[in-house]
């Protein structure tokens, strides 16, 4: 079931009904918002053979696309450690994109999670997205639109994907068989991000990381440096777990700063109570400084700097520091 982002779906529907159907689209937004689900929905919409409202979800094309076996809906394969797209892969797409579709009148290439697509591959891609054959469509998904080259972005019609409402998220979770209590717990952490709510309910490690993030917030509020270090290091040596905590912590600080301006504001992070306590204790300048420090630590760890070094420096900053 596709929910939320009605404005985007309406815009896409108008596009397919009118004469100006953009052939290169970008869906961007944080992880878990359903960008790939939306890409599939749009592919179904383009290839659905029903005469009524599209996608019908029942015709052969709709069913094959949903099952991932439609020959004209191609998920371009990721390659390499960073899960980008190799130059060879993109070159193959460019040469195949000009070949007529197998069964219908359109073919759709989906480049998902393009955040690690290197410059070389993007430049190769430029040729084909500048003037794609009339039957070829491209859908890109990414965490942010800044990850792609401006020359590439200028060829795409971008759509920012947002969360659905908490009520919608909760109904989807309950419909999927989760108990109302579990659904409520997940929604209190990840709000209208259904993908993250499901990840939370399915993945004990994510539950543990969310709990550690909340613990870290308490330690920052109470100025318990040793416990803060312990909370950070409990994430384990795995870089991704640390990144996940920093990401959640950054959200809590963003919420804290937003609550300072408007206390009725809707939180986006996993710890509403922590964010309100921080908002009451921190000055705007200090809060922004901390938020920036967390962002810098995240960037450093993403860039392969030693996790221990970064976290130790971050703890010192968050405990007052300079
Ligand atoms: Zn259909």
Total number of β-strand segments? 5
Q: Rg from C-alpha positions? A: 22 Å
What is the H/E order?
HEHHEHEHEHEHHHHHHHHH
Give average pLDDT, whole number: 92
Which CATH first-tier class of the largest domain would you pick?
Alpha Beta
What is the fourth-level CATH superfamily of the largest domain?
Answer: P-loop containing nucleotide triphosphate hydrolases
Largest beta-sheet details:
5 strands, parallel
Number of domains: 3
Broad structural category:
alpha/beta
Strand order of the largest sheet: 2-3-4-1-5
Tell me about this structure.
By secondary structure, this protein is an alpha/beta fold. It folds into 3 domains: 155 residues, Rossmann fold; 38 residues; 115 residues, Zinc Finger, Delta Prime, domain 3. The chain has 15 helices and 5 strands. The chain has a 5-stranded parallel beta sheet, with helices on one face. The longest helix has 23 residues. The model has no long low-confidence stretch (mean pLDDT 92). It binds zinc ion (ZN). Zinc ion (ZN) binds next to α3.
Secondary-structure blueprint:
Layout: H1 6-17, E1 24-28, H2 35-47, H3 60-66, E2 73-75, H4 87-96, E3 107-111, H5 119-130, E4 136-142, H6 150-153, E5 157-160, H7 166-175, H8 180-190, H9 194-202, H10 204-222, H11 225-233, H12 239-261, H13 272-281, H14 284-302, H15 307-318
Parallel strand pairs: 1-4, 1-5, 2-3, 3-4
Helix pairs in contact: 1-2, 2-3, 4-5, 7-8, 8-9, 9-10, 10-11, 10-12, 10-13, 11-15, 12-13, 12-14, 14-15
This protein binds zinc ion.
Zinc ion is lined by residues 48-50, 55-56, 58-59, 61-62.
């Amino acid at each position: 079931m596709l929910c939320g982002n009605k404005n985007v779906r309406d815009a896409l529907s108008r596009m397919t009904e009118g004469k100006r159907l953009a052939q290169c689209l970008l869906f961007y937004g944080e992880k878990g918002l359903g960008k790939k689900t939306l890409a599939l929905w749009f592919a179904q919409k383009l290839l659905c053979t029903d005469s009524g409202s599209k996608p019908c979800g029942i015709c052969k094309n709709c069913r094959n696309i949903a099952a991932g076996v439609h020959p004209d809906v191609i998920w371009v394969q990721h390659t390499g450690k960073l899960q980008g797209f190799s130059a060879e892969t993109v070159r193959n797409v460019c040469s195949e994109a000009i070949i007529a579709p197998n069964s219908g009148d359109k073919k759709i290439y989906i480049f998902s999670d393009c955040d690690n697509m290197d410059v070389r591959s993007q430049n190769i891609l430029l040729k084909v997205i500048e003037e794609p054959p009339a039957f070829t469509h491209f859908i890109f998904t990414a965490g942010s639109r800044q990850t792609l080259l401006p020359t590439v972005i200028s060829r795409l019609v971008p759509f920012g994907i947002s969360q659905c409402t908490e009520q919608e998220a909760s109904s989807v979770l309950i419909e999927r068989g989760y108990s109302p209590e579990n659904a409520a717990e997940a929604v209190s952490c990840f709000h209208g991000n259904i993908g993250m709510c499901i990840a939370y309910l399915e993945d004990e490690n994510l539950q543990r990381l969310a709990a550690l993030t909340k613990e870290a917030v308490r330690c920052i509020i109470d100025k318990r440096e040793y416990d803060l270090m312990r909370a950070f290091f409990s994430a384990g040596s795995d870089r991704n777990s640390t990144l996940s905590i920093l990401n959640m912590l950054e959200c809590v600080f963003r919420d804290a700063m937003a609550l300072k301006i408007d206390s009725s504001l809707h939180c986006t992070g996993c710890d509403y109570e922590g964010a309100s306590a921080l908002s009451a204790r921190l000055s705007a300048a200090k809060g922004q400084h901390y938020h920036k420090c967390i962002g810098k630590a995240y960037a450093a760890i993403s860039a392969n700097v030693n996790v221990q070094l970064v976290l130790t420096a971050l703890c010192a900053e968050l405990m007052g520091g300079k």
